[in-house]
Structure formats: structure tokens, C-alpha cells
Design goal:
flat; 6 helices
């Protein structure tokens, strides 16, 4: 681990609250602030009403190998990169403000996430030993991932190239006649909850496997929600995210109205024009429990939706363990047959 005092100029972080009883650092479990030292618990609203603490110590983790930036309320959250497992980590204090509109708080604790992983892996009988390693499993981290959530109305027109085939016979020969048509469709659609990744380093396919989130539970962002968790740095601008959302909506618009084109053998789009109304977007933070294990120079990920508990993961097969297993099974079968034949007097 490398401590660098100059990294703060380019990075983000979270904050910490101190227990008013014993001054230990409080942890946020998704509902209230808890002191692990004196065991006191504090309701968020009451805590802010009765305490003048508003600022936290802030730290930033920067991986020199993959470039990911994590914000945390402690400088002892991890000794290696959560994503690529490299140990070339820079840590520094950071005093900038975190900007987000809404957040979905964690509903599940680290213990629940670890138990979900253990249940997930128990049927993987050929898993490598690294996936049973207690130290690796303890590297389960709760992370808030920055996203943008867009809503809009779309009006558009799309032109399609449509083909209809007719087959007929003449003598010994079979003919196919293809008629081509130009078909135009117009439409109006409403789009809600278009989710766009706000981080260049986060693998967006993970979200695709553990969705959906219940966006009815979005709440106004408060720094206290971040206590005890990591926050990935938001390095995609809202403007770029909006452009990505517009492209997704335009393609979805054309696909949807093409479903109303019937009685053709093939339909392909020629051109489309989509305009947007009431286009609004928000910065949101989504909770994920994530653990990455490195095996044979490849990273394998287990992730759990911090709101719903839905999981996804990949565990490789240890080929040596699998070969040994089937070899033992073969030997047991061979010995059993030998003994049966021996006592039957056949051998």
C-alpha cells in the first residue's frame, strides 16, 4: 500500500460520523447509525438534530493499474484494488463535496452477502480452493455505483425496407418472387428509468444480471448513507450520459414501432428521426455487494443487489480437482466390481 499526499487534487470521497458517547466511528446499516464500540444506536434525524457534526474524514483509493477510484470513510478499507486485485493503491485525504441527487440505501448487511455467496458456491464441487479462502471471502465490499436515471417523451418517424416473398413452380423449376416495399411509421412513446452507467471502470453487465431495482425507494441523497461503504467515482458527465440515453431510446423507439409492421417476411430500418420532450435526468447511487477473486490471472466476480438480494456470479472449474474426483469414482467402481466377481467365484 502506498500513501500519496498529492492524489487528493484529482479524487473524491465520503465522510464519517463520530459517536457522541465514545467518539468511535459510526457505521450506517441502511436504517440507523450504529457504534460498534459502545453499541449505541442513533436515528438519522435525531442524530442531526442533536449533534453539530456535519463533516467526515474523507479518503480516496486510486488503483494505478486499472485506474478505478473509490471513495471511502476510512483509509483501511482494503489493501488491494477491489476490481483488478493489484496492490498498487494510492490513498489520500480528500475534502471535496459529493454530488448526487438520489440514493437507494443498502438493505442487506455484509454477513447476508457472504452467506448468499456461501450458498451460491456450495454446489460448485469442482471450485478452486481460492473460492473457499476465508480471506478472499472477507473481501466482500459494499459499493455505491453512480448511475444516471433518465425519463422522457419521444416522438418520431421511421422508414423501413420491407420484403415479401412469393414462391411458385413452373415446370421443373421453383421460383421465388420478392416484392420490396417502403413502409413508414410514426409514433409517440413515454420512457421511464433509462439507466446509464456513470463510471468508466464498472462492468455494466453486472447490473444487467442483478436488476431490477425498486426506484420507488429512491430517497434524497445524504452523506450519512455512505458511512461504512465504498463509493465509486463518477467519471462520466451528465451530458455524455444523456447522449447515450438518447441513442438507446432512439433505437428502442424504432424497434418498438417496427413490431406493428405485419405480413412481411423481413423488415429492416432505413432511417429514423426522433425528437424528445420533457427530458430529465438524475444522479443516483445504486447499492451492490461485490467480491472479486483472482484465479489463473483472471478475475471472477460475485455480486449481490444491495436492495433486493438478487445475485450473480461465476466460479471456474478446477480441472485437476475434477479429474481426481472422476478417477476416484472410477477406482471405487472398479474395486466394487472386482470384489463382486471375486466373491461370486468368477475370478
Amino acid at each position: 500500500m502506498i500513501i500519496n499526499e498529492k492524489v487528493g487534487d484529482i479524487l473524491d470521497n465520503t465522510q464519517q460520523y463520530k459517536c457522541p458517547k465514545c467518539s468511535a466511528i459510526l457505521k450506517f446499516d441502511g436504517y440507523k447509525l450504529q457504534c460498534e464500540y459502545c453499541k449505541n444506536e442513533f436515528n438519522i434525524e435525531e442524530f442531526f438534530d442533536n449533534n453539530s457534526q456535519k463533516n467526515f474524514n474523507k479518503y480516496i483509493y486510486f488503483c494505478q493499474k486499472c485506474g478505478v477510484k473509490f471513495i471511502a470513510d476510512s483509509d483501511k478499507m482494503t489493501n488491494s484494488c477491489i476490481y483488478c486485485k493489484a496492490e498498487s493503491i494510492l490513498i489520500d485525504k480528500f475534502n471535496h463535496q459529493i454530488h448526487s441527487d438520489y440514493i437507494i440505501p443498502f438493505k442487506f448487511t455484509k454477513e447476508v452477502a457472504i452467506n448468499s455467496y456461501k450458498n451460491f458456491k456450495q454446489w460448485k464441487i469442482f471450485k478452486p480452493k481460492e473460492f473457499n479462502n476465508k480471506k478472499n471471502i472477507e473481501e466482500m465490499h459494499g459499493i455505491y455505483i453512480p448511475y444516471y436515471l433518465f425519463n422522457c417523451n419521444a416522438n418520431g418517424i421511421a422508414e423501413y425496407d420491407c420484403k415479401k416473398n412469393n414462391t411458385f413452380k413452373s415446370g421443373k423449376y421453383k421460383y421465388i418472387k420478392t416484392d420490396t416495399y417502403s413502409v413508414t411509421r410514426v409514433g409517440h412513446m413515454c420512457f421511464e428509468h433509462i439507466l446509464i452507467n456513470g463510471s468508466k471502470n464498472f462492468n455494466n453487465s453486472i447490473i444487467n444480471f442483478i436488476e431490477p431495482y425498486n426506484y420507488d425507494e429512491l430517497k434524497k441523497f445524504n452523506n450519512s448513507d455512505l458511512s461504512g461503504f465504498l463509493l465509486e467515482n463518477n467519471d462520466i458527465s451528465k451530458e455524455n450520459a444523456k447522449n447515450n440515453a438518447m441513442e438507446i431510446i432512439s433505437n428502442c423507439f424504432a424497434d418498438e414501432i417496427s413490431k406493428h409492421i405485419k405480413d412481411y417476411d423481413s423488415v429492416s430500418i432505413l432511417k429514423k428521426s426522433v425528437t424528445f420532450n420533457n427530458f430529465d435526468g438524475y444522479n443516483i447511487l445504486l447499492p451492490i455487494w461485490i467480491m472479486n477473486i483472482k484465479y489463473k490471472n483472471k478475475i471472477f466476480t460475485f455480486a449481490m443487489n444491495g436492495q433486493t438480494g438478487k445475485i450473480t456470479g461465476e466460479i471456474p472449474i478446477d480441472k485437476k480437482k475434477m479429474i481426481l474426483f472422476w478417477l476416484i469414482i472410477f477406482l471405487l467402481i472398479f474395486i466394487s466390481l472386482f470384489l463382486i466377481l471375486y466373491f461370486e467365484g468368477i475370478l
